[in-house]
Specification:
It contains 18 helices and 10 strands. Helix 14 packs across helix 18. The strands form 3 sheets. A 5-stranded mixed sheet has the order 1-2-8-5-3, with helices on one face. It is of the alpha+beta class and about 425 residues long. It is globular and about 60 Å long. It binds protoporphyrin IX containing FE. Protoporphyrin IX containing FE binds next to helix 14 and helix 18.
């Protein structure tokens, strides 16, 4: 190939080759991996005219660029300040005020400060200490399913779990758990958008304001009297004399609910789907239950809930021949990196014993997912419990469908499993 990159539009590499640039073409939404493989081979770094940004698909480049300080994550401030008129700004200010405090959209120096304070409170140790709580939530959900001939893994099992767990970890009363599910849904819809969801901004605004009031109240209650929960820990988090403001605690609580909801839901659904569609691997897991941790890492690599991450060029620079200009968008296809044969042997094979497995499903570098320990813990509690309670699960259909989104790979169809009534509950 001439050079290390070339544009997709109008190029004629190899005669009349012209590559597709539609990241949302239905066959690609359904199964992006053949397309990613093509990109890695033929256009690993390219300007995508339709998406209007640079697209990277190789592991090495993505791992490097996730740590590149000249690439920024704050897409919101420039959008808010320059793309919206005064009326729209007024209308959307309440949402902007909350989301601009989300660590995932912050750049240095603010990012370091808020991330340190958040990680002071939301530690892997604190997460592990919630194991019993997660076991209880899983047990309740499984009990509600016992007795049915079939259920939908996505809606009946994977969907309620993360929102309930996040709510309980934050310190919400059990009576409010149902609210968290709806809130989480509306926020996910706002961020990822979606065809036919035109009222999403209105719904999200109402949600955000309701949620803000709810958490503000929680913070007020915990300020008066601490409990063993995350809101109390966020109030107490300190970096020297610095602490999080009430607005920051509210915004970060909302981020945790959003960031952990659909991602973990899909990780749970993919885990059960991948095991049921690879019966040899299911047998292997049954024979060696201690493989559950490695199995989850393999699902994250093989079928991770995120397709990509976006960045903005903060200052002009050249990368492997590509001239990145200030303000341009960059898409880092982490799901493609996770199937890169230059990094993984037999990348398209699902192997629950794979080691090493340095996938990028949780990102890499300064924005590495703060909820990774929680997502891993929830999945490692939930999946063995599900398999134990329902040892004869069978998929009704292997056909899945997905929301048409560039950044996430979220299942939109039910994943119905049939249960053998005789054995359910007696393992
Ligand atoms: C399977 C589940 C999950 C996946 C695949 C996932 C994926 C990711 C990815 C790829 C990033 C980096 C984004 C970037 O670099 O642009 C990220 C960041 C983040 N995630 Fe997760 N996540 C998951 C679960 C969670 C959970 C359960 C929580 C919390 C309850 C959470 C909280 C966060 C936060 C706070 C960040 C931002 C960190 C920062 O910007 O410094 N995530 N996640």
């Amino acid at each position: 190939l001439p050079g290390s990159y070339y544009g997709l539009e109008g190029t004629n590499v190899g005669g009349n080759y012209r590559m597709n640039d539609d990241l949302l073409r239905p066959d690609i939404v359904l199964d992006p991996y053949p397309f990613y493989s093509d990109l890695r081979e033929r256009a690993p770094i390219h300007w995508n005219e339709r998406w209007r940004g640079w697209v990277f698909s190789r592991y090495e480049d993505i791992a490097t660029l996730l740590r590149e300080p000249r690439l920024l994550v704050d897409s919101m401030t420039p959008y808010f300040n320059s793309k919206l008129d005064a009326n729209q700004q007024k209308e959307l200010k309440p949402i902007f005020d909350i989301m601009s405090r989300w660590v995932v959209f912050m750049d240095p120096p603010d990012h370091g400060r808020v991330r340190r304070l958040l990680s002071n409170a939301f530690t892997p140790k604190m997460t592990e200490s919630r194991r019993a709580l997660i076991e209880d939530v899983v047990d309740d959900i499984l009990t509600s399913l016992t007795g049915s001939d079939q259920f939908d893994v996505v809606n009946d099992f994977a969907y309620p779990l993360p929102a309930q767990v996040t709510a309980l970890i934050l310190g919400a009363p059990r009576s409010d758990l149902h609210l968290y599910r709806d809130w989480a849904d509306d926020i996910v819809t706002l961020i990822h958008g979606g065809v036919g969801e035109a009222d999403r901004l209105d719904r999200a605004k109402i949600t955000m304001l309701d949620f803000r009031d709810h958490v503000t109240e929680l913070v007020r209650a915990r300020t008066a009297s601490r409990r063993d929960d995350l809101v109390s820990a966020l109030i107490d988090a300190r970096e020297q004399s610095d602490a999080l403001s009430v607005d920051e605690i509210v915004a970060l609580s909302m981020l945790l609910l959003f960031a952990g909801h659909e991602t973990t839901q899909n990780l749970l659904a993919f885990t059960i789907y991948d095991l049921l569609t690879h019966p040899d691997q299911m047998v292997r897991l049954r024979e060696a239950p201690e493989l559950i941790g490695d199995a989850i890492e393999e699902v994250l690599r093989f079928d991770g809930p995120m397709r990509g991450s976006t960045r903005f060029v903060g200052q002009d620079f050249e990368y492997a021949g590509a001239e990145l200009k200030k303000g341009q968008r960059v898409l880092l296809l982490i799901a493609s990196a996770n199937r890169d044969p230059a990094k993984f042997e037999r990348p398209d094979e699902f192997d629950i014993g794979r080691r090493p497995n340095q996938h990028l499903a949780f990102g890499y570098g300064p924005h590495f997912c703060l909820g990774a320990p929680l997502a891993r813990l929830e999945t490692s509690v939930a999946i063995p419990a599900l398999i134990k309670r329902f040892p004869d699960l069978r998929l009704e259909s292997e056909q899945l469908s997905f929301y048409a989104r560039i950044l996430s790979r979220a299942i939109s169809s039910p994943v119905v499993v049939r249960v053998n009534r005789v054995s359910a509950g007696h393992s």
